[in-house]
Amino acid sequence: MTLDLVATSTPRFARVVLPIPVDQPFTYEIPDALAGRVFVGCRVDVPFGKRAMSGIVVALADEADVPRIRPIRELQETYLPATLLELARWIASYYGCSIGEAVQAVLPPSLRRTKVTAKPTGIASVSNPELRRGGEGSEAYATAQRTLARARRQLALLTELLSADGEAPVPVILGEWGYAREILDGLVGRGMLRIDAAAPSSPLDALETRVEQLTGAQSSTLATVVDALRAREFRPILIHGVTGSGKTEVYLRAARHVLDEGGGCIVLVPEIGLLPQATARYRRVFGDLVAIIHSRLTGPERFEIWERIVRGENRVVVGPRSAVFSPVRDLRLIIVDEEQDESYKQDDKPRYHARSVALVRGRNEKLAVLLGSATPSAESLRHAREKKYQLARMPERVSGGAMPEIELVDMREPAARGTILSPRLVERLDETIRSGKQSIVFLNKRGHARYVQCSACGWLAMCKNCDVSLTFHRVGDRLKCHLCGYERASPAQCDTCASRQLRYAGTGTQRVELELKALLPGVAVLRMDADTTAGKDGHRRILEDFSTGQYPILLGTQMVTKGHHFPGVELVGVVSAEDGLNFPDFRSAERTFQQLTQVAGRSGRGGPLGGVIIQSYCPDHPVFRYLQSHDYDAFMTEELEVRRTLNYPPFARIVMASCSAVSAAVLNAFMEEWAAASRQLLADRRIVVLGPTAPLIPRVKNRYREQMLLKGPIGQADKDAVLGAYRRIMEKRKGTRAIELRWDVDPESFL
Ligand code: ADP
Ligand code: ZN
Ligand code: ZN
Predict the structure, then answer these.
(1) Residues 184-218 pLDDT 10s
(2) Helix (H, G, I), strand (E, B) or coil at 675
């Protein structure tokens, strides 16, 4: 196969990869009308069977390799630059999918011409100078709170604007912030906001005036980055900086340095990091040069951004994992903020990890790659300790403030035993409320909440399609399956023995909410969990409501641990801290530490009440000890030792192959054969093949599941061999088509 980027003669045929799980490209004829205009990387529409598909040209040819060739139907405007095609090839081979499937993740959705609607314009700013200056602490704000008591969205927008220094472009408010036009117009109608057509003062000036002088740690970190940029070679750098140490400031300045030199930059943030406060900061510094990609964008909007990036109009791209594929002109730097975040791993094919892709892209294109975190992943920390990455430390908060004090409550003590909220936590919550400050109560829950069990015979209410217990929902008195959505009314008696002694066990957010309301009567609690955040904006809305200061307590699951910075929060309470620790995953200690650090970081800057209370049944666990001393390094030293001993990542690689089928017998026979074949193929390598075994949840949506785990120094050839065996066995057992494979390289989840 030839891979000429530039056609010398005018080739008559193009080899095209399609978004199907077939690795071979298909040959199509280039019609006369397109002669000379088709090149490698072009996106074309082609007939495939009876359908039309859009694919990518990966090679040109003068001869056809098969008889009966059909012509390309249409040539699209978007194309895949050579560097991104190379990246797609790497993804395909490393993560085990076809190039066509990898390309799908890289390019924005394929589109015909779209209607371009007139864009809203202007800058909205807070009219009252006193309010603008004084912000949320001012008298004027208290007045506004009263005026807008019945207009919560308007108050949320006003508060958001104040946190963004009192002004923001109208397109940002309606776009990234997600406010409806009526909300904005409402505030303008009340005279509280003004919309001006004028351009804002140079966005770059803002940076200088806001942060006058970098701290020592910031300057030396920035110098390391600038050095790496000057070298114009692949240089990975890990910034290990506590929350509030000023990492984002370093990102902004590094990106600006790149722009000043005429280059471009990508900043990856977890989806949750795209909340208003963060986006406003990038907007303020980079104005129209920045493209912000987020999940609420429609297909046409994504497409338009892609085109603007290609044209060089947007030179900084901020976005979640897919932003790593942005076709930024003269790319010099990729920043991965919160590099340990699980959301960088894509759950569907291709199951890539954006941090790994960023590093590979960095190597291919000779870039500086900056990974930043308060709690770096074991993988990155190990590379830094082995000097494969440069390590920059920022151990102190910019404010000079101390890290929040962490207090452990032993739930086995008599006073706490049997309670959901210990007397100590309730006491502290009460104090915090009285002082007019806010608290966050974090329920460290993974997996399933309240279940219904018969006290007489032990019967457990289960889903009829999946092997999981049903979760009790007080609203509507229903039992629901969190996997497939099956629901039924709560039983009045046991399904098996008809006893009426049913037990509602486990702790869910709804239960904690009731408890809070009972122990702290009259206190408004804002609950954030999967139920209250349904819908596109649910999550953001709750955070916005909380930021207005009207709710003393925010209660929720993982979702409350990241994102917004709430100045009013003085206390964080963690309920059932060990739930995460007991989770069957080799990363459970690491994740628990990271999560608790995140949530602790929400607590005030060490005011008299500032603090974190962790309730635990095993307060002696090392995770809590290191957490209390804020010593992530020591924790990781111990954790890495455990990983090395047990041969887990980052000292080994893991591939998880899970298959599902309707028939348990067919599935098991297949998996046994595949595992045996894999063991034979890998006999000389130090790779173990575990399984096949049933996963934690052996049946989902009426399909049985079995998994096989490969663990060890797995190389490309090993993966190819095992996948080859899979295809051979499938081929041999024709009719076994009903088996579905999920091939997950470097899995982040083992459910
Ligand atoms: P991180 O990303 O590490 O959590 P940020 O960059 O968001 O930290 O900084 C935390 C806060 O400190 C922000 O409000 C930021 O504007 C401010 N800040 C950062 N650097 C400085 C500095 N050198 N001087 C004063 N304030 C700073
Ligand atoms: Zn029973
Ligand atoms: Zn189910």
Answers:
(1) 888 988 888 888 765 444 433 444 346 778 999 99
(2) helix
Could you list the beta-strand ranges (E) of 484-601: 487-489, 502-505, 525-528, 553-556, 569-575
Name the pLDDT band for 113 (thresholds 50, 70, 90): very low
Cβ neighbours of residue 682 closer than 8 Å, sequence gap 6 or more:
689, 710, 712, 718, 721, 722
First vs last C-alpha separation in the chain: 41
Q: What angle do CA 668, 672, 676 make, to 5 degrees?
A: 170
Sign of torsion, CA 381 385 386 391?
Answer: positive
Q: Which residues, listed in sequence order, are joined to residue 658 by a DSSP beta bridge?
A: 707, 742
CA distance 16 to 38: 11
Half-sphere exposure (CA, 13 Å, Cβ side) for 336? 30
Which of the four pLDDT bands, split at 50, 70 and 90, describes residue 462?
confident
Report pTM.
0.82
Yes or no: say if 361 and 87 are a contact pair by the CB < 8 Å rule. yes
Collect all residues with Cβ–Cβ distance below 8 Å to 429 and sequence separation of at least 6.
421, 439, 441, 516, 520, 553, 571, 573
- Structure tokens of 28? 């199509």
Compute the half-sphere exposure of residue 731: CA atoms within 13 Å on the CB side of its CA. Answer: 6
Q: What is the pLDDT of residues 118-133, one digit of tens each?
A: 567 778 888 888 888 8
Which of 249, 251, 338, 561 has most ligand 1 atoms within 8 Å of its beta carbon, as the pocket-test mutant?
Answer: 249
What CA–CA distance (Å, rounded) separates 278 from 283? 9
Per the structure block, which two tokens stand in for 151? 């207009």
Give me the residues near ligand 3 (ion), CB cutoff below 5 Å: 463, 465-466, 481, 483-484, 486
List all residues whose CB is within 6 A of at least one atom of ligand 1. 211, 213-215, 218, 241, 243-249, 398
Distance CA 628, CA 32 (A): 71
Contacts of 231 (CB under 8 A, 6+ apart): 368
DSSP state of 32: G
In whole angstroms, give the CA distance from residue 119 to residue 433: 44
What percent of the chain stands above pLDDT 70?
89
245 burial via Cβ count (<10 Å: 0-12, 13-18, 19+): buried
Indicate which residue's Cα is closest to atom 18 of ligand 1: 246
**Cα of 429 from ligand 1 centre, angstroms:** 28
**Measuring CA to CA, how many Å separate 125 from each of 200, 341, 356?**
10, 34, 41
Q: What is the dihedral of CA 642, 236, 351, 20, to 10 degrees?
A: -150
Question: Tokens 């996963």 belong to which residue?
Answer: 695
Distance separating alpha carbons of residues 524 and 527, to the nearest angstrom: 10
Task: Tell me the two tokens of residue 138.
Answer: 């001012």
The full 3-state SS of 567-628, as one line of letters, equals CCEEEEEEECHHHCCCCCCCCHHHHHHHHHHHHHCCCCCCCCCCEEEEEECCCCCHHHHHHH
